[in-house]
Amino acid sequence: MTEVIETVWIPMPDGARLAARLWLPEGARTTPVPCILEYIPYRRRDRTRMRDESMHPHFADAGYAAIRVDIRGYGDSDGVAEDEYSHQEIQDGHDIIGWIADQDWCDGNVGMFGKSWGAYNAFQVAATRPPALKAIIPVMGTDDRWREDIHFYGGVLANDNFWWGSIMQLYNAMPPDPQIVGADRWLEMWKARLEGARFWPAMWLEHQTHDAMWRRGSVCENYDDVQVPVYFFGGWMDLFRDTPFRIAEHLKGPVKVMMGPWAHLYPHEAIPGPKADFVGEAIRFWDHWLKGIDTGLMDEPPLRFYLQDSVAPAGIHAHRDGRWVEEQSWPSPNVAARDLWLNAGTLSAGPEDGPALSICSPQSFGAAGGDMCSFGIPGDMAIDCRGDAGGALQFRTAPLEAPLDILGQPRVSLRVSADRAQAFVVALLVDEAPDGAQTLLARGFCNLTHRDDDTAPRPVIPGEEMAVSVPLYGTGCRVLPGHRVVLQIASAYWPILWPAPHPVTLTLTPGTSRLHLPVRSAPADAPAPRPLPDPPKRDNRRAITRVREGSMERSVHTDLSTGEITHRFFLDGGVFGPVGDLRLDDTGTVMSDISDRRYMIRADDPLSARATMTQTSCFSRDDWQARISCHAEQTATPTEFHLLSRMTCWSGDEVIHEHEQTHIIPRNGM
C-alpha cells in the first residue's frame, strides 16, 4: 500500500526549507526505489492537489517514489518569489535532486517531469547536470524563452505578458497554510512575501529585446548542457509547438516526442481528443531509464505526431479526427518545402506580375483568433477567420485535388515596405472549406524593427522595401481535397499582440514573396504506429465538494456610440474553468477564485488599447480565512508603456497589506 506523507521538508544549503508531498510505494523504506520529481510553484497542498492525484499515486503503484515540491516562495516553502526560472530556483532544483538521491527510500536514480513551468525547469535543471538525474519528461514547455514564451511572439509584445504576469501577481501573493507552517508563523511568512513581491508584467517589459534575461534558462543557448534522455509531450492547441522540432534536431542524447491535438493540459486529461495515457507512457519511459527494464519504447520511431484533418472552425473542439504518424529524425526526409508565390490574390507555383498590394488593418483585426494558448476552455480556440478577413490581404490556392499533409514549421519569405518607423507583420495560414469557412492552421509574426537584429531594434525607413522571414509556429494537419490553403497578411492582431504606436500600412509587390509549406509524403512501406489506448479509468484518489457553482463569460462587445471594442473573459473558478468554490475534503480547505480580463481598443486608434485584469482569491477553513484582491492595467503612449498594479490582502476581516504602484517603461521598437 502506498504511503503518503503530506509534508516533507527539504533543507537547502542556505537554511531555507522547501515543502513537498511524497508518495512511497510499499517496501520502499527497506528496498529503495527510483524517484520521480515534479517541481512547480502552483501549491501542492491545494491548487494542484487534484491534478497531482491523477499522476503521482500511479507512479507509486508502478514502484516509484513520487515527490511534488513547491518552489521557494510558493505554497508552504520558505522565501519570496524572485522571477520565473531564477538562478535560485534552478540551483534549488539541482540541490533537491541531490537530497532525494541521499534518502534511504531512493536508490539514487531520479527522473523529473512537469508541464509548462515544470517543463521549463526540467530542461533547466537537467542543464546543471545533477548526477542522480537520469531522464526528464517535459510537457508543453520550451527550450527558448525569447522565441516561444508568453512575452514576445516574433519579437512583438504579446498581451499574454500582461495577462499571465497578472495571474502570477495573484499567485505570488498567496499565503502559506497555517496547518503546515504553524499558526504562529504563517502570517509573518505571508507578509514577507507581500512586501517582497514585484509586479512581473512591468519587470518583464523592461526587457524588450533578446537580452541576457531571456537567454537565462533557454537551453537552446547550449543544447550540449542537456545530456539526459528526454521525452517531450506537446499539443497543437498549446503554445509550445516549435520546441519538439528544435530539440529533435539539436539534442545529442535520446529524444522522444509525442505531439497530439491537445490544449495546455496533460495528455490523459486533455482536449481536443483523442487523449493519450500519459501516465502509462511515462512509466514505460521511467522503467527503461531508471530501472533498466527493456519496455520496447526506445525501439519505436522516436517522433510521433498527430495529423489533424480539416475541421469546421469553432471556439472549442472536443475531438479532432486525424491519424498518428511517426518519423525517425528531424528534419525528416519525408518532409520537403513546397513554395507558393504570393501573387495578386493567389498562392501559385510561380511568380506573377501585378500592381502593388497594400493593407492597413483595423486595430481590431484578430478578434477571431482566440488565445495563442488554449486551456481547453470554451471560446479560447480560433473561430472562423472570415470574421477578420476584410482587414488582411488574402492569397488563395486553387481547390486541392488531393489531401495535403503539412508537418513542421511553415514560413513566409516576404518583401514588404511599411509607412511607419514601428511596424509588424502578421501571417495567418488558413484552411478554407468549400463553403468558405476558414479554420486557422498556424500563425506567425515579425517585428520589422527586429529585421536585422533582435538585440538592437532599428526603426523602419518608411517606404523602403525589406526582405524579412516570418516563421509560423509548427503544425501537423491534413487539408482535405476541395479545400484551399489561404494566407492572410495583416498589420495588427488584437488582442493577441499589443499594437504599434500608429496605424501601419504594409505594401508588397506580387511575385516577390513566397510561402514555404513543409509538406509530408508518407513512405509507402511505413508501418502503422503502435496504437495508443485511451487512458485507463484510474482511481484518482481525490475527493472534492463543489460548495458554489461557477460561471464564465467570453465575449466581444462593440460600443456603437464610442467605437470601443471590448474582449472580456470572466471566469468564476480560476484559470482552468468555471468551477466556482471547491472544498478539498481531505484538508477541509475551500478555494475561491474570480478573474475578469478585458482588452479594449478602437479600430482606428492603437493608442486606445487598454488591458485590465481584476482578480480575487480566498482560502478558508474553520477559523482561517485569507483573501487577496488584485487589479492591473496597461496602456501606452507613442513612446511609453504605462502599467498600474494594485493589491489588498485580508486575514479574516483585517487588512494586512495594501499597495498601489505605477510603472512607466520606454517603448523600444514595440
Describe the structure.
With 670 residues, this protein is mainly beta. The chain is built from eleven helices and 34 strands. The strands form five sheets. Strands 1, 2, 3, 4, 5, 6, 9, 10, 11, 12, 17 and 22 form a twelve-stranded mixed sheet that branches. Strands 26, 27, 28, 29, 30, 31, 32, 33 and 34 form a nine-stranded antiparallel sheet that branches. Strands 13, 14, 15, 18, 21, 24 and 25 form a seven-stranded antiparallel sheet that branches. A hairpin with a 5-residue loop joins strand 27 (551-558) and strand 28 (564-572). The longest helix is centred in the first third of the chain and has 16 residues, at 87-102. The protein is globular. The N and C termini lie far apart (57 Å). The model has no long low-confidence stretch (mean pLDDT 96).
Topology:
Elements: E1 3-11, E2 17-24, E3 33-40, H1 49-53, H2 56-61, E4 65-70, H3 87-102, E5 106-115, H4 117-126, E6 133-139, E7 152-153, E8 156-157, H5 160-171, H6 178-181, H7 186-196, H8 200-205, H9 212-215, E9 230-235, H10 243-250, E10 255-260, H11 278-290, E11 303-309, E12 322-327, E13 335-342, E14 347-348, E15 357-359, E16 393-396, E17 404-408, E18 411-418, E19 424-432, E20 438-447, E21 466-471, E22 475-479, E23 484-490, E24 506-508, E25 514-520, E26 544-548, E27 551-558, E28 564-572, E29 581-584, E30 589-602, E31 605-621, E32 624-636, E33 640-651, E34 654-666
Parallel strand pairs: 3-4, 3-5, 5-6, 6-9, 9-10, 10-11, 11-22
Antiparallel strand pairs: 1-2, 2-4, 7-8, 11-12, 13-14, 13-25, 15-24, 16-23, 17-22, 18-21, 18-24, 18-25, 19-20, 19-23, 26-29, 27-28, 28-30, 29-30, 30-31, 31-32, 32-33, 33-34
